[in-house]
Every structure is written in structure tokens, then in C-alpha cells.
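Weekly sync, protein design subgroup
Attendees: M.S., D.O., the rotation student, P.L. (late)

Item 1: inverse folding check
M.S. brought a backbone from last month's batch and wanted to see whether the design step gives back something sensible before we order anything. D.O. pointed out we never logged the input encoding, so this time it goes straight into the notes. C-alpha cells as presented (617 positions):
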């Protein structure tokens, strides 16, 4: 109940009423009330602002209900204060209204679930349900015949059965409620979360023998039960599905039972993809608006088929072609709980067999449109007959022409043969036939000319390749950043850089490969976050270390600040420069790769060891 309908003070609007009430509450304090009113308020409520506001609004509601039939007028402040501030039991406020709405909703839900039972009987059954320990688990595929057999078996010994739902039905318990009552014939007396208690009924006699083992008879019984509740459109839809195949009795939804596609013939002898013919001036594909309209149409339709098989769908394809004569789309439900189902394989197989257009494919549904070039079976038969008649006429005409050619003479044939006649005219215009020697000479000249053209083409390609190689070599010989090399630092800056560099804990270790492209890349990565980079090498020869330092300075473009001896070897400190700019390619082109640098270092060590051996001798 809304606050505006609770106050009900016409003809003022809700906003004006609320403003007026707030003005009264702000202008007059609770102390202006009489002693009798104050005593009653203290007895019923705590002394806080919220209770006082609620009390006054309740009294205002009582006042409006008391003078409902009188002419509407605005009360002055003194008359408003003379009213007794009493609580009205009929007044309901938003905070109380929410609780009451929830209670009413629960009562209504319970009344709908067990509207056929008396209150005493319902309480008795719910008391029994509290002591139920055994429960039947409903699988993902829903209420299948084995599950129904368990339910009826338990009903033989007990009035109630406890059901626990999983997967799809647990997310839509209203749907599960309807399915249970329709399939079992029982009454749901209690439901919470994914669990429900189902009562078998007073006149329960057990399942019939026909519905236990024969799905066809169960489908017939269901059709008889639902026939009276169907609309004319649903009855027509049901009759259309009767001619397509047996129904899927274990259908987990409500409404009309779809056709069980797994019971259709997997292979149809002589089946071929149907004939398709697109009308003139019509685009074969669907536009976005047409696609949206088809999906909207398919969403409102019940499912035509229920499928759980991935391959061998020729029987289903025949049924879909028959359905397309009356419906634009075919809606197929993928069976839940069936192992190794693949909706992608199903859709590809059906699209290949029928030639339709796939509108939707997910783990629940497959929707296929018949296409703009769809031709019904009777029209396709007529068109195929016409094509066969046309072929027969063409064969007869060909035979007649062959007979006419046999009757006429050879000279007449030569004069009327189109290509031969034109060839003879060209030879006569040229001045006679070409001899074999001349023909061989012409072929040699043509071969030589083609070879000359090929050689010229290869020469042009080689020139372009050489030019590109020269450009790449020239670019590789240019230093990485020549501007940084020209920059100089003072002695004070050099000392400062040396002190800071020696204190740095982060450094790069030069291995046996010494200088290669990976070292230059790591130096630029260090310069991205700091101005200095520290390198440590284990070489003991100072002259060789100086050569390495110069080579690194040239390749990286940095400035060598200091070379110091350490217990580990030598430390090299480089400054990136004030005008440093990070290059586009961190790895330069001219330094050696990792493998080549290792070979070079190994050969240098070998020569050094040989020189040391000679000097020792």
C-alpha cells in the first residue's frame, strides 16, 4: 500500500500533503500536546523523533478516514493539534507494508499449491513431510520414465514423496511445479528452493499399465487430457506434429509435447538434398531486420522436435522438410542429460541435409529457417519432371542433327563447320599451309623470345634486390644514436656518476659472449627507468675490458663514465645522456647474435691460451 493512498486527503496531491505534514511537524513540538496524549504516547512508544512522526501520521490517517464522507477542507494548525494522537490499528505504513506483502505472498503461494486440500489435512501432510529422509533426485533430463517409476513406487508405501531438482529445473521451480503435477497427477503441498513435497492424492490407484511401458499410449492419454484446455491454434499445431513422428514423453517443459527425433529413422534410402530455386531479383541472404523477426517468431513457438543424437539425421531432415511446408522455421530442443551431445555437429548435419539457414544454436535450442529458395515437395517434383522432359527433348534434337549430318556429304560438312571453315579461310589468306620445317623454326623463335623476356625480368629483380641490400647495409653501419656520442660530461659529473654507479645494487652481468644484441637491449631497458647502467665483467685483462667498454659505448650510444676494478672483475658504468631518446628497435642490427658471439668468444679464448703458452716457453 502506498503512502499516498494511506493518507487519502483529497483534493491535495501527495506532494502537497507531505509538505503540509512536514510543516506542521516542524512548527509544533511534541510538548504542545495535552497531558493525556503525552501519557498515552509514552506508554506505547519510545521517546524518539521517529516514533513521534509515525504517531502523528497514523492520527492523520484516522482523521482522513473519519471525515471521508464530509466535504474536503484544510485543517488549521489549532484544530490539527486538538485531535487525539492515537494509533489506528487499520493504518499501514511502508515499513509495515513490505512485511505484510511478503506474508500475503507466502500465504497466497501456499493456498495455490494446495487449494484442493483442507487446512487440517494440509498441516497433517506437512508434519509428515518434516520427517521424510529419503528423497528422489531429479536429473538434468527431468522427469523421465525411470524417475516416475521411483515416484510411484514410493507412493505405494507413503503418501508423500520428496523431490530434489538439479541443473535446469532447479533454476525455474515454477516450471518444475507444473511439470510434476502434470506428469505425476499429484499435488505439491510444500516447496522451498530446489526441494518440494508431492502428495499422491486421496484416490490414488497407482500408475496404469499402459503408461508404464508404452510411450505412444502415454502421449495419447496426455493429448486427451490437454485437448479441452487447448486453443484452436494449439490444436492445429498439435495435429501438425502428429504427422511428423512419435512424441517425446519425457519432455521437461510444459505445453505441447515435441516429436522425439531420436525415434525417427537414422538413414532414409535414396535421400538427396532437396531442390532449391531462388526467385528472380531476390537476395538469398537474410537482412538484420529479417533475422530479428525470424528469431522473434521462433521464440514464441513451442518446440517441434527434441534431439539427442549428433549424426544420422536423415529421418529428422525428412520431417523438417515436411514441416517447412507449413512453418517458416523449425525449432529443435537439445535433450538435457544425454551424454556426448554436441549442438554444433547437430546444426552442421541438419544444415547439410536440408540446405536451410541456421538462425540460432546454443546448448538448449537449434532454430533453422527454411530459406528464401525453399521449394515444397510437390512443386519440386513438378520442376524435376519438367527438367527431365527438357532433357529428353534435347536428346531427340541431338539425334536428329546427327542423322542430318550423316545424310549430307563430306564437302557440305566442311563448308558448314564453323571453326574448320574459319581456319581454312585464314590459311588461304596467308598463302598456303605451313610446312613442318617452318613450324619448328617458329617454335624455336618463340622459345628464344620467351627466354629473353625471362632473363630481362630476372635482371630487373636482381637490381632491385641489390639496391635494397645496399640500403640495409648503410642503415646498419649508422650508430644507434650518434647525438649521444657527441655529448660530453665534465669531470665533476663523471665523479658523481662513478660514486652513484658503484652504490647501485642492480647490474648487468657480461658472460662469455661479452657483447651481443641482448646486452644492448638490456642497457636500453635499464635506461628506461634510470640514468645510469652498471655492467660487470669477469675479464682480468684491463686492455680487453677497455676494448669491450669502447665497443659497448659505440653500439649503445651511451657515455662511458668509469671503469673500476672489483673482486668479481671490472665494473663498467654508462650514462645515457641528457638528450637520450629510446630507439624504435632496442636490438641493433649490426651486433652479433647469441650463437655467433659465443663462437667469437671461444675463438678469442683459444688464441689467448695459445699466446700464453708460447710466452711461457
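Designed sequence read out in the meeting:
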Amino acid at each position: 500500500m502506498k503512502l499516498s493512498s494511506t493518507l487519502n486527503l483529497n483534493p491535495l496531491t501527495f506532494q502537497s500533503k507531505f509538505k503540509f505534514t512536514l510543516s506542521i511537524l516542524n512548527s509544533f513540538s511534541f510538548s504542545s500536546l495535552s497531558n493525556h496524549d503525552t501519557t498515552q504516547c509514552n506508554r506505547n512508544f519510545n521517546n524518539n523523533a521517529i516514533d513521534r512522526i509515525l504517531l502523528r501520521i497514523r492520527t492523520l490517517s484516522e482523521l482522513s478516514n473519519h471525515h471521508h464522507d464530509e466535504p474536503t477542507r484544510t485543517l488549521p494548525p489549532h484544530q490539527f493539534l486538538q485531535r487525539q494522537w492515537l494509533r489506528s490499528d487499520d493504518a499501514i505504513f511502508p515499513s509495515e507494508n513490505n512485511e505484510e506483502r511478503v506474508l500475503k505472498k507466502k500465504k497466497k503461494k501456499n493456498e495455490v499449491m494446495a487449494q484442493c486440500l483442507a487446512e487440517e489435512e494440509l498441516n497433517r501432510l506437512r508434519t509428515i513431510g518434516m520427517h521424510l529422509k529419503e528423497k528422489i533426485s531429479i536429473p538434468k533430463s527431468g522427469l523421465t520414465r525411470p524417475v516416475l517409476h521411483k515416484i510411484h513406487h514410493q507412493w505405494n508405501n507413503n503418501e508423500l514423496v520428496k523431490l530434489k531438482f538439479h541443473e535446469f529445473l532447479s533454476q525455474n521451480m515454477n516450471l518444475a511445479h507444473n511439470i510434476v503435477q502434470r506428469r505425476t497427477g499429484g499435488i505439491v503441498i510444500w516447496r522451498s528452493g530446489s526441494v518440494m513435497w508431492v502428495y499422491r492424492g486421496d484416490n490414488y490407484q497407482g500408475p496404469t499399465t499402459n503408461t508404464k511401458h508404452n510411450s505412444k499410449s502415454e502421449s495419447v492419454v496426455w493429448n486427451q487430457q490437454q485437448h479441452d484446455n487447448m486453443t484452436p491454434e494449439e490444436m492445429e499445431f498439435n495435429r501438425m506434429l502428429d504427422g511428423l513422428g512419435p512424441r517425446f514423453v519425457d519432455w521437461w517443459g510444459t505445453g505441447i509435447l515435441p516429436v522425439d527425433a531420436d525415434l525417427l529413422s537414422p538413414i532414409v534410402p535414396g535421400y538427396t538434398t532437396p531442390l532449391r530455386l531462388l526467385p528472380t531479383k531476390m537476395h538469398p541472404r537474410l537482412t538484420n531486420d529479417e533475422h530479428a523477426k525470424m528469431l522473434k517468431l521462433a521464440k514464441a513457438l513451442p518446440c517441434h522436435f527434441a534431439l539427442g543424437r549428433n549424426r544420422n539425421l536423415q529421418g529428422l531432415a525428412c520431417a523438417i522438410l515436411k514441416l517447412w511446408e507449413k512453418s517458416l522455421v523449425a525449432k529443435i530442443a537439445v535433450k538435457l542429460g544425454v551424454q556426448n551431445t554436441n549442438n554444433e555437429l547437430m546444426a552442421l548435419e541438419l544444415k547439410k541435409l536440408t540446405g536451410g539457414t541456421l538462425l540460432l544454436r546454443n546448448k538448449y535450442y537449434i532454430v533453422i529457417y527454411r530459406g528464401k529458395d525453399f521449394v515444397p515437395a510437390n512443386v519440386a517434383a513438378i520442376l524435376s519432371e519438367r527438367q527431365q522432359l527438357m532433357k529428353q527433348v534435347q536428346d531427340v534434337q541431338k539425334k536428329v542433327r546427327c542423322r542430318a549430318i550423316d545424310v549430307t556429304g563430306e564437302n557440305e560438312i566442311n563448308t558448314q563447320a564453323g571453326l574448320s571453315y574459319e581456319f581454312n579461310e585464314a590459311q588461304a589468306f596467308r598463302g598456303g599451309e605451313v610446312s613442318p620445317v617452318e613450324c619448328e623454326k617458329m617454335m624455336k623463335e618463340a622459345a628464344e623470345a620467351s627466354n629473353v623476356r625471362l632473363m630481362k625480368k630476372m635482371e630487373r629483380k636482381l637490381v632491385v634486390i641489390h639496391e635494397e641490400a645496399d640500403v640495409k647495409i648503410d642503415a646498419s653501419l649508422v650508430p644507434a644514436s650518434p647525438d649521444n656520442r657527441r655529448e660530453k660530461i665534465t669531470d665533476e659529473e663523471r665523479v658523481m656518476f662513478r660514486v652513484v654507479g658503484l652504490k647501485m645494487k642492480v647490474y648487468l652481468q657480461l658472460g662469455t659472449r661479452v657483447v651481443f644484441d641482448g646486452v644492448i637491449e638490456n642497457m636500453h631497458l635499464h635506461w628506461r627507468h634510470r640514468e645510469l647502467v652498471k655492467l660487470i665483467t669477469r675479464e682480468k685483462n684491463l686492455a680487453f675490458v677497455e676494448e669491450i667498454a669502447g665497443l659497448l659505448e659505440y653500439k649503445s650510444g651511451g657515455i662511458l663514465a668509469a671503469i673500476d676494478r672489483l673482486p668479481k672483475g671490472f665494473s663498467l658504468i654508462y650514462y645515457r645522456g641528457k638528450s637520450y631518446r629510446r630507439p624504435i628497435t632496442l636490438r641493433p642490427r649490426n651486433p652479433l647474435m647469441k650463437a655467433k658471439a659465443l663462437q667469437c668468444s671461444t675463438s678469442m679464448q683459444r688464441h689467448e691460451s695459445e699466446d700464453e703458452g708460447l710466452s711461457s716457453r
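Discussion: The radius of gyration is 48 Å. The longest strand covers residues 559-565.
Action: P.L. to compare against the previous round before Friday.
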